[in-house]
Amino acid sequence: MATSTPSARTDGQPPPTPDGSTGKGGAGRGATAGQSRRNILHRLDVRAVPYAFIAPFFLIFGAFGLYPLIYTFWISMHRVELSTMDMMEWRGLANFTELIDDERFWNALTNTFTIGVISTVPQLLMALVLAHLLNYRLRGSTFFRVAVLTPYATSIAAAALVFTMLFERDFGMINWGLSFFGIENVDWENQKWPAQFAISAIVIWRWTGYNALLYLAAMQAIPRDLYEAAAIDGASRWQQFRQVTIPGISATIVFTIVLSTIGATQLFGEPLIFGQGPNGISGGADNQYQTLGLLLYEEGWKNYQMGRAATIAWAMFLILVLVFVLQRVAARVKAGRPARAAKVTKKTKSTPSATS
Fold first, then answer.
1. Average pLDDT for residues 271-282, to the nearest whole number?
2. Cα-Cα-Cα-Cα dihedral sign, residues 80, 86, 90, 92
3. Residue 2 forms part of a structural domain
4. How far is 218 from 46, CA to CA, in rounded Å?
5. Over the Cα atoms of the chain, what is R_g?
6. Rounded distance, CA 185 to CA 179, Å?
7. Pick from 68, 90, 112: which residue ends a domain?
8. Are residues 73 and 107 in the same domain?
């Protein structure tokens, strides 16, 4: 018996299937599945790809930042010696309580604070003056901008060695210059305040140019229209500097203060090399310039007490957190004063005056 095959349709529709359907349902289901897959890939592309781009930062931060921080805190809760790091004796918060009662810690904290103030305040003031001078159109300004950054590119060891020779008691150039004014030789290393001033001089020399370039970049971002308007109003150069430049770079000034505070807290290389030998680790014979960084190094790598060293490291971290919190509180208080003043002024104006 002969069977007939379905003939091709001339209306553009697919030929009927053996069950009499045209096959449009299967094609529709396939198109819907393909569209669904494309939607899923699109959502992954929009939502997941950004996280893939930033994942390397968090992986590196977790491996080299967060994990060491947590592990250091774990070590600070134990008595651990450098030679037997695998043997830990649980102490809880005993290391922290002993640190609070340790006079050496408070001496190192005081030295860190005083050296930080002596080095930071002149450094930022000098950087502000340098940036203000470089902000003008000077001949050879590019050379001067590179020159002020040269000390920052110098290694700490080289700078500290040079300044150590300059501040040498018997043959140093500083004492030689002071002798013309009738001042006897100053023992810069073995006296507390001379030693701290000498170490601060190294810090000032290295970081002034770096901060000056930060201020210069902020100054160049201030619109020139503000200076022109101030000049039209009759403001002098000094008034323009106080009323236009300083408010315009206030955020950068705060940033450099925080950055200098962090650097002062972690001060280590300059006093270590300035001591010229064993006294460098202890910050002098009487610990007269021992900083928190030197105390941490002495406890961990000289006394082999890694638990106490980790405790000092966490104390430094908590100090920096406290400084950051105080800075944020001060910024909010400063920002809230104009708002309160404006509110009081508006309320005063809206209150009708009493008539007699």
1. 82
2. positive
3. no
4. 36
5. 34
6. 7
7. 90
8. no
Buried b (16+ CB within 10 A) or exposed e, 6-25: eeeeeeeeeeeeeeeeeeee
Q: Dihedral, CA atoms, 103, 105, 111, 114, nearest 10 degrees?
A: -100
Residue 340 falls inside a structural domain: no
Same-domain status, 76 and 175: no
CA distance 22 to 28: 12
The answer to whether the CB of 254 falls within 8 A of the CB of 327 is yes
Q: How many CA atoms lie within 13 A of 224 on its CB side?
A: 2
Domain hosting residue 74, numbered range: 52-90
Question: pLDDT grade, residue 356 (50/70/90)?
Answer: very low
**N-terminal to C-terminal alpha carbon distance within the chain:** 123
Distances in Å between the Cα of 44 and the Cα atoms of 36, 39, 217, 231 are 12, 9, 40, 56
**Using CA atoms, how far apart are residues 143 and 164, in angstroms rounded to an integer?**
28
On whether both 256 and 179 belong to a single domain, the answer is yes
Cβ-proximal residues to 184 (8 Å cutoff; 6+ apart), any chain: none
246 lies in the same domain as 196: yes
Strand 78-81 to strand 84-90: parallel, antiparallel, or no bridges (unpaired)? antiparallel
What span, in angstroms and rounded, lies between the C-alpha atoms of 97 and 72? 17
CA–CA distance, 212 with 202 (Å, rounded to integer): 16
Q: Is residue 119 part of a domain?
A: yes
Does residue 133 sit in the same domain as residue 83? no
Is 280 within a domain?
yes
Same domain, 204 and 295: yes
What's the CATH number where 210 sits? 1.10.3720.10
pTM of the model: 0.78
Is 145 in the same domain as 180?
A: yes
Six-digit token pair at 336?
A: 């809230």
- Give the pLDDT confidence score for residue 342 in this predicted structure: 59
Considering only 136-140, 274-278, 336-340, which range has the smallest mean pLDDT? Answer: 336-340
Tell me, yes or no, whether 212 and 256 share the same domain. yes
Nearest to 123 by CA among 206, 199, 195, 193: 206
Count: domains in the chain: 2
43-52's contacts with Cβ under 8 Å and 24+ in sequence apart are none
The mean pLDDT value for 153-176 works out to 90
